[in-house]
Design a protein that fits this description.
Largest sheet: 4 strands, antiparallel
Bound molecules: zinc ion
Number of domains: 2
Number of strands: 7
Order of helices and strands: EEEEEEEHH
């Protein structure tokens, strides 16, 4: 990846990078506890074996039947998925995980908004809105055009900043 890569996925570990254990995939019939033995590796290569009992609870479904949930071994919260990290299988909160989408950089978010705006205006990502789409109110069109103009300004500013950084290095 180049310097111009704005993603900052390394800020926090993302849910998508962890081994997960979905209680629904285990297709349990009835049980209230699962005994698990597994090993985890630390960054330094150290191996640790963990043995623990993880509780399963059941709740009735709307259409009859019941569904299972884990109780997080750390906080006791009812969750469908546990994620594996150094301290073992824990819920997303206890293992301090985030979804990738929430880690988008401000620029990523901005770009996504801009593309959505272009979609609404029926133009390509680098085009300028010239004509109002047929069924759009003039007022809406004016507002979108203004937002688009502003969005373009921010994009240009950001690109210039990146360009300056590249020049300096
Ligand atoms: Zn927890």
């Amino acid at each position: 990846m180049s310097r111009g890569d704005w993603h900052r996925y390394d800020a926090k570990t993302a849910v998508e990078q962890c081994q997960r254990l979905d209680v629904r995939e285990l297709r349990l019939n009835s049980c209230d506890c699962i005994n698990m033995t597994y090993s985890v590796h630390s960054r330094s290569g150290e191996r640790r074996t963990i043995e623990e009992n993880i509780s399963v609870v059941w709740t009735p479904c709307h259409l009859g039947g019941k569904r299972s949930w884990w109780l997080c071994p750390n906080c006791g919260k009812r969750v469908a998925i546990l994620y594996l990290r150094m301290n073992g299988y824990r819920c997303r909160t206890c293992n301090d995980l985030v979804y990738k989408s929430s880690q988008e950089s401000r620029f990523d978010r901005h770009l996504r908004k801009k593309f959505k705006l272009c979609d609404k205006l029926g133009i390509g990502p680098v085009e300028t809105p010239l004509f109002k789409p047929k069924h759009m109110h003039q007022k809406t069109f004016d507002r979108l055009c203004w937002q688009h103009q502003r969005a373009m300004g921010i994009t240009v500013q950001h690109s210039l900043k990146v360009f300056e950084l590249l020049k300096r290095s």
